[in-house]
Amino acid sequence: MMDQAYKEKILLRLTDKVEAMIGKIGDKSPHVAREDGVYDDMRHSWWTSGFWPGMLWLMYDVTGKETFKDAVWDWDAKLEQCFSEHPVALHHDVGFQFLPTAVIKHELTGDKEGLRIGLKAANYLAGRFNIEGSFIRAWNTENAVGWAIVDCLMNIPLLFWASRVTGDPRYKHIAVRHADTFLKHAIREDGSVCHILSFDPETGVFIEPIGGQGLSGDSAWSRGNAWALHGLSIACRCTGEDRYLQAAKRVAHYFVAALPEDHVPYWDFRADAIDGEPRDTSAGAIAASGLLELAELVPAVERRIYAGAAERILFSLSENYATWAKPEHEAILLEGTGNKPADQNINVSLIYGDYYFAEAFAKLNGWNHRIF
């Protein structure tokens, strides 16, 4: 399906595509591109603001081209301004914002400002920890004081990183307790995952699962399952704890078994009638990168199971959902779904789908700076 020549070809395509995106996107902070192929420009405090600069750092690391580094160098400083200008707009997604900007900048270049900003974000994330419930609060709205969401499994790597660079285990302790809370309440026996967990914020008592961006509290929102698969694999890599590996494998098995014939997921695996339901290419890209992560954690005899599943997803995304034949299009992947229950951003391009697609192909070509 995908030999090494094909993987290298796609990486070259990505290099050309992302270079072209620099000229088109400029200083925008993209989230969604619709039918016209033009990415929007969101405020820097928006949760997706780290993915475009993250893609630039990724491509710089893979290719060594200064063009990418020059375009991305000051993005962490731009995002840091949100702490003073938009403090109530920031929440648990500071991991998504500062891991692919400040943290990778420091890791790749030794930049001390990147280190300072990354630790500032880690301190902010740690400050959202609810001691009674052992979870990191997700959003800042009044109704969400006791809410934690599956996406945060991809933000806690910021805390694992902070423990590593400071030698302070407290960050790691918070990350582990949050991950364990999701093992207990969010991941079902069959490997499916819910989006939101609701707790009493005073007592920490678990109340119920909530559907959120999935169909319902007992459905299986595909991007949420992808976040869990990827995030638990990272938690295993960062801690060496087998419970995270086993949970990641269980989620992976559910995800792969639920895929349709072309290996690209619908937005929720338990939608009532699949015919006519939208796909979510971003969920496919996130899961594929996570499967490659998982493949490196298992014995060699198992590795092909997860790596093979990742490659089948990526091949279908590249051949059937990419914009290679649309050079005017600013995005890479088509047919993403943002929030189907709210009727928001359906059949669009999503910057995080583009990021994880590029990340997965970077991994297939030997990239090993695993910031997420």
Low-pLDDT ranges:
none
- Rg: 19 Å
Structural class: mainly alpha
- Secondary structure: number of strands: 8
Strand % is 5-15%
Largest β-sheet summary: 3 strands, antiparallel
- Global morphology: globular
Keywords:
three-stranded antiparallel sheet; Glycosyltransferase; single chain; mainly alpha
Structure write-up:
The strands form 3 sheets. Strands 1-8-7 form a 3-stranded antiparallel beta sheet. It has a single domain, classed as Glycosyltransferase. With about 375 residues, the chain is mostly helical. The chain starts with a helix and ends in an 8-residue tail after the last helix. The chain is globular, with a radius of gyration of 19 Å. The longest helix has 22 residues.
